[in-house]
């Protein structure tokens, strides 16, 4: 039950209601406010913090390792792969232009590491074609290059080959969330944390959102930005959740690397963050268990992550695991996000397929334009 004061300040009638306070929802509110500063906007979030992957990811501003992109080409073709890659790349530029140093944006580049000779050879055979196709996006003819020095320089073992690029970056995901949040609060965007949405109803003029604990909200337009948790609202999209488990070490003296890394077709990823190693991945060890909306960790994946640390990444260093966590990503068969106007007063921007950091700004900007024109 709300008091007079709460009802007066935190009204339940808005121009725009956004469900989900992850990066997509925050960027959407930001672009809507930029386009129309007088819009009244509220964001409903079921958790006390964003409940998916936005503040739980590894903090990679990336748009695709060579093996990932080549796999995408096999699955969805060159045209769709390049379209998605361009959107990811442009999304990273939006992040950089808007926040930069305030979110610890480090243009350190990235490397994909290989331990399998055949897989590396297969990837390099297609590298020239991949670079040619990407040159129009990144503005460089040799985006990916075989890196002869990074493995020995970083003091890794077990990895034999590396393909690097200098266009990707590392960010602090928590700071990105907080900068977006502060910016929106300063523009009088209302946040309702701990507010679970149970259903949405629309008619010709308005939309109604029914919540578990705060009753009914009304809006001229509702946008669903719940990524992996969207099946309640969009069952026809057949979105599959994918849990990503992450560990971080305690501080380590004299770490020899300071960039972002991927290996095993992008299923594993790590970086140096404040002289700690952050390592995540392993979903491919147990797809069935990791296709879940439940947060948590499993012994099979944590043990594999620790083994990669001891045998490959930190072979001659003593280290301790500080703690572990997980985030929930969203995937579909099409390998592409769903972002569109569903009805005149209902839209959605969901299913980032593991690339939400990069895709969210671009897709949110695009959707804000569509909402403004609808």
Structure description:
The structure is a single chain. With 374 residues, this protein is of the alpha/beta class. 34% of the residues lie in helices and 26% in strands. Strands 1, 2, 8, 9, 10, 11, 17 and 18 form an 8-stranded mixed beta sheet that branches. Strands 5-6-4-13-14-15-12-16 form an 8-stranded mixed beta sheet. It has a two-stranded antiparallel ribbon with strand order 3-7. Strand 1 (13-19), helix 2 (23-35) and strand 2 form a beta-alpha-beta unit. It is built from 10 helices and 18 strands. Helix 2 packs parallel to helix 7 (173-185). It folds into 2 domains: 4-56 and 174-238 and 335-373, FAD/NAD(P)-binding domain (3-Layer(bba) Sandwich), CATH 3.50.50; 101-171 and 240-331, D-Amino Acid Oxidase, subunit A, domain 2 (D-Amino Acid Oxidase, Chain A, domain 2, 2-Layer Sandwich), CATH 3.30.9.10. The longest helix is centred in the first third of the chain and has 33 residues, at 66-98.
Strand percent estimate: 25-35%
User: Kindly, what is the distance between the CA atoms of the first and last residues, rounded to a whole number of angstroms?
Assistant: 35 Å
Classified by CATH, the class of the largest domain is: Alpha Beta
- Coarse morphology: globular
Q: Find the structural class using helix and strand composition.
A: alpha/beta
Low-confidence stretches: none
Topology, number of strands: 18
Mean pLDDT: 96
Number of spatially distinct domains? 2
CATH superfamily of the largest domain, by name, is D-Amino Acid Oxidase, subunit A, domain 2
| Order of H and E elements | HEHEEHEHHEHEEHEEEEEEEEHHEEEH
Largest sheet report? 8 strands, mixed
CA-based gyration radius: 21 Å
What is CATH's topology name of the largest domain? D-Amino Acid Oxidase, Chain A, domain 2
* Named CATH architecture of the largest domain: 2-Layer Sandwich
Percent helix range: 25-40%
Helix count, per DSSP?
Answer: 10
């Amino acid at each position: 039950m709300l008091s007079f004061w709460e009802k007066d300040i935190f009204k339940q009638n808005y121009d725009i209601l956004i469900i989900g306070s992850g990066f997509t929802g925050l960027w959407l509110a930001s672009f809507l406010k930029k386009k129309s500063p007088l819009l009244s906007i509220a964001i409903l979030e079921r958790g006390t913090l964003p409940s998916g992957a936005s503040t739980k990811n590894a903090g990679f501003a990336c748009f695709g390792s060579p093996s990932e992109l080549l796999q995408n080409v096999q699955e969805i073709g060159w045209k769709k792969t390049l379209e998605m890659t361009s959107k990811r790349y442009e999304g990273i530029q939006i992040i950089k232009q808007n926040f930069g140093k305030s979110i610890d944006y480090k243009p350190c580049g990235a490397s994909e590491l290989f331990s399998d000779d055949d897989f590396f050879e297969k990837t390099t055979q297609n590298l020239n074609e991949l670079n040619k196709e990407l040159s129009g996006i990144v503005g460089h003819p040799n985006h990916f290059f075989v890196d002869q020095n990074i493995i020995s320089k970083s003091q890794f073992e077990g990895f034999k080959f590396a393909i690097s690029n200098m266009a990707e970056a590392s960010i602090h995901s928590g700071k990105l969330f907080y900068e977006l949040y502060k910016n929106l609060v300063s523009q009088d965007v209302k946040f309702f944390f701990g507010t679970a949405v149970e259903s949405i109803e629309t008619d010709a003029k308005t939309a109604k959102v029914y919540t578990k604990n705060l009753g009914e909200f009304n809006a001229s337009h509702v946008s669903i930005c719940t990524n992996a948790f969207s099946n309640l609202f969009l069952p026809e999209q057949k979105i599959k959740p994918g849990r990503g488990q992450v560990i971080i070490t305690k501080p380590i003296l004299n770490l020899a690397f300071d960039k972002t890394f991927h290996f095993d077709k992008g299923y594993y990823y790590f970086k140096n963050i404040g002289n700690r190693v952050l390592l995540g991945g392993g979903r491919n060890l147990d797809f069935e268990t990791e296709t879940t909306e439940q947060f948590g960790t499993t012994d099979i994946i944590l043990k594999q992550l620790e083994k990669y640390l001891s045998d490959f990444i930190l072979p001659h260093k003593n280290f301790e695991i500080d703690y572990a966590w997980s985030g929930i990503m969203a995937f579909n068969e099409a390998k592409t996000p769903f972002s569109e106007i569903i009805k005149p007063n209902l839209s959605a921007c969901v299913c980032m397929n593991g690339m939400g950091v990069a895709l969210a700004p671009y897709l949110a900007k695009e959707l804000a334009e569509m909402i403004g024109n609808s």
